[in-house]
């Protein structure tokens, strides 16, 4: 456990670049492992979650070589060519790594054991195992389909038509990855659109894919199985979910003026920025450009007077990981911020709805936690002074450190070590902007994080 304290202090200023996008980084390694030849990746996120996926791809027979600053070379084995791993695959804290790999491996005729940390071992895997079982995968799992578990893929998988029952890019992606090694056409219908990185990268790597979108936004994705995937250079853009932390910090710390460079603006990921602008945030998108098929920009953010808003439930998929940090912004807004459609937050690295509510309570922020909603009332009294339990959840840790930077009293999180799952260098990056973050127990000025 590495407790860390955020102290309110001076304005934040400067230019920073956040690390590469986590979703694209996992997928770049996975598609690289399935392509025959060399996939060069630039700017891979070198966080614990992604490094677990890299290790898994090696165990499945791919060659994954790290160069400098996130440049990686992957030599793949081809769809259908994965090797049986000799040891269990450990996905650490990563739902994305575990669920995408279940889909990938589940239609290969081999056995594999999946492990994870205490947080991942509590999360539901049935949402991915159910379609896999229909494709012919055998599963040995504990009650409730949690990790650790073992799977064995069929000799020949059955292609599936599957309607995703929860809005989840991980489930959609797992079924599409499974469909890659099934003969015929696998169809995934998502009633609510979620992040589309898998579809974009399948197309980039040369898969035969057809996507139709209904008037109500429902998407049908048809994938022709057993393609020969071609290696594709991947440049990983900055992660908007990581950019959210310095952006919200600059909005709530008076006098701040910060630029976060190279942030991906894929529309399936930008719900937080839409919401912050509705709240009155001074955000400008500078130097917009297209790189690797994604729009990216430098986001210029200045301290702003925020007002509470209602965030509609249909926006949730495009900002699903950003509700904890939005709650920190809402604590400093005038009036109430109502966030609806949050049921999925209960099955993330922690029960994020409960963890956010407990953190707000510990720091004097007025709020109401519902079954699938959260209402935060800003500025009702002094904020801060509490210790927040992170429950092995990086986003809880970072969100409450951000809250502490603008609070009336310091805020401590009980374990900042978990931040390395998605955002190594978070504390140094924030300190570079002027944030006062230090190991809990130190007095101001000693041993800066
Ligand atoms: O597909 C992905 O890369 C992700 C999908 C989301 O999860 P769900 O699919 O469970 O909503 C998100 O929370 C996670 O951080 C990354
Ligand atoms: C939910 C998250 O990740 P994962 O599901 O990959 O653990 C996240 O990064 O907030």
UniProtKB/TrEMBL annotation:
EC number(s) reported in the record: 2.5.1.19
Active site (record annotation): 321 (proton acceptor)
One Pfam family in the UniProt entry: EPSP_synthase
Positions annotated to bind phosphoenolpyruvate: 22, 95, 123, 170, 352, 395
Gene Ontology CC annotations of this record: cytoplasm
Alphabetical keyword list: Amino-acid biosynthesis, Aromatic amino acid biosynthesis, Cytoplasm, Transferase
Subcellular location field: Cytoplasm
Record's catalysed reaction(s): 3-phosphoshikimate + phosphoenolpyruvate = 5-O-(1-carboxyvinyl)-3-phosphoshikimate + phosphate
Gene Ontology MF annotations: 3-phosphoshikimate 1-carboxyvinyltransferase activity
Residue numbers binding 3-phosphoshikimate: 22-23, 27, 168, 170, 321, 348
Function summary: Catalyzes the transfer of the enolpyruvyl moiety of phosphoenolpyruvate (PEP) to the 5-hydroxyl of shikimate-3-phosphate (S3P) to produce enolpyruvyl shikimate-3-phosphate and inorganic phosphate.
Family label: Belongs to the EPSP synthase family.
The protein's name in its UniProt record: 3-phosphoshikimate 1-carboxyvinyltransferase
Gene field: aroA
């Amino acid at each position: 456990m590495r407790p860390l304290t955020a102290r309110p202090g001076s304005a934040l200023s400067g230019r920073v670049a956040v690390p590469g996008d986590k979703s694209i980084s996992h997928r770049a390694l996975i598609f690289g492992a399935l392509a025959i030849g060399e996939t060069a990746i630039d700017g891979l996120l070198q966080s614990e979650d992604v490094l677990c996926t890299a290790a898994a791809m090696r165990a499945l027979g791919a060659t994954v070589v790290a160069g400098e600053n996130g440049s990686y070379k992957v030599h793949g084995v081809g769809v259908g060519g994965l090797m049986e791993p000799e040891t269990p695959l450990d996905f650490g804290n990563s739902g994305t790594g575990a669920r995408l790999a279940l889909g990938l491996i589940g239609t290969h005729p081999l056995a594999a054991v999946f492990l994870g940390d205490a947080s991942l071992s509590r999360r539901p895997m049935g949402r991915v195992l159910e379609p896999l079982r229909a494709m012919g995968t055998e599963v040995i799992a504990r009650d409730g389909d949690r990790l650790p578990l073992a799977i064995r893929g069929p000799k020949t998988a059955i292609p599936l038509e599957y309607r995703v029952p929860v809005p989840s890019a991980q489930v959609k992606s797992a079924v599409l990855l499974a469909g890659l090694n099934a003969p015929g056409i696998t169809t995934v219908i998502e009633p609510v659109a979620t992040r589309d990185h898998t579809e974009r990268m399948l197309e980039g790597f040369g898969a035969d894919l057809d996507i139709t979108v209904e008037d109500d936004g429902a998407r049908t994705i048809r994938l022709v199985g057993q393609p020969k995937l071609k290696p594709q250079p991947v440049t990983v853009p900055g992660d908007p979910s990581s950019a959210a932390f310095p952006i919200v910090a600059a909005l709530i710390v008076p006098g701040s003026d910060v630029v976060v460079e190279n942030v991906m603006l894929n529309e399936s990921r930008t719900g937080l920025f839409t919401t912050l602008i509705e709240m009155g945030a001074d955000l400008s998108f500078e130097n917009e450009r297209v790189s690797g098929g994604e729009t990216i920009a430098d986001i210029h953010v200045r301290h702003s007077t925020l007002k509470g808003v209602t965030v509609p439930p249909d926006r949730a998929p495009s900002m699903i990981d950003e509700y904890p940090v939005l709650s920190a912004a809402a604590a400093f807004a005038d009036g109430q911020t109502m966030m609806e459609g949050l049921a999925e937050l209960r099955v993330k690295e922690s029960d994020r709805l409960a963890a956010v509510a407990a953190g707000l309570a510990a720091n004097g922020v007025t709020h109401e936690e519902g079954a699938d909603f959260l209402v935060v009332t800003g500025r009702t009294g002094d904020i801060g002074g509490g210790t927040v339990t992170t429950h092995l959840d990086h986003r809880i840790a970072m969100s409450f450190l951000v809250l502490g930077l603008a609070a009336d009293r310091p805020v401590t999180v009980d374990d900042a070590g978990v931040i390395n799952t998605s955002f190594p260098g978070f504390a140094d990056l924030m300190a570079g902007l002027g944030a006062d973050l230090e190991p809990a127990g130190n007095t101001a000025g000693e041993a800066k994080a």
